[in-house]
UniProtKB/TrEMBL annotation:
Residues 1-24 form the signal peptide. It is a multi-pass membrane protein. One of its GO terms (cellular component) is signal peptidase complex. It is found in: Endoplasmic reticulum membrane. Keywords: Endoplasmic reticulum, Membrane, Signal, Transmembrane, Transmembrane helix. GO terms for biological process: protein targeting to ER; signal peptide processing. It comes from Cyanidium caldarium. Belongs to the SPCS1 family. Component of the signal peptidase complex (SPC) which catalyzes the cleavage of N-terminal signal sequences from nascent proteins as they are translocated into the lumen of the endoplasmic reticulum. Dispensable for SPC enzymatic activity. The lineage of its organism: Eukaryota, Rhodophyta, Bangiophyceae, Cyanidiales, Cyanidiaceae. The keyword DNA-binding does not apply. The keyword GTP-binding does not apply. This is Signal peptidase complex subunit 1. It comes from the Eukaryota.
Length: 93
């Protein structure tokens, strides 16, 4: 997910919650049933999660380029590990 996609996802989630709560309060006021607010809130939260949590293509339009994976030989890793073990500045004794 790119930064613009993350921002879009957050905005859509907040709008989904606000719409659900607004409709819930309106519905509860018109029917005198306070449970309507909770039902609408839960439904809007579920819809928001379904809309915003998966990495949909609309959130990944300008993907960040990743560096290619570099394979490091085992000998190089062992040399670095030995160098770290011998470095007096890194000793914790």
């Amino acid at each position: 997910m790119d930064p613009r996609g993350q921002r879009l996802s957050e905005v859509l989630f907040v709008l989904c919650l606000l719409l659900g709560i607004t409709l819930g309060v309106w519905r509860a006021a018109s029917s005198d049933d306070v449970r309507q607010v909770l039902r609408w809130y839960m439904a809007s939260a579920a819809a928001g999660l379904l809309l915003c949590v998966p990495d949909w293509p609309m959130y990944n339009r300008q993907a960040l380029p990743w560096q290619p994976c570099q394979r490091v030989a085992a000998e190089k890793l062992e040399a670095v590990a030995a160098e770290i073990r011998l470095d007096p500045a890194l000793k914790t004794d």
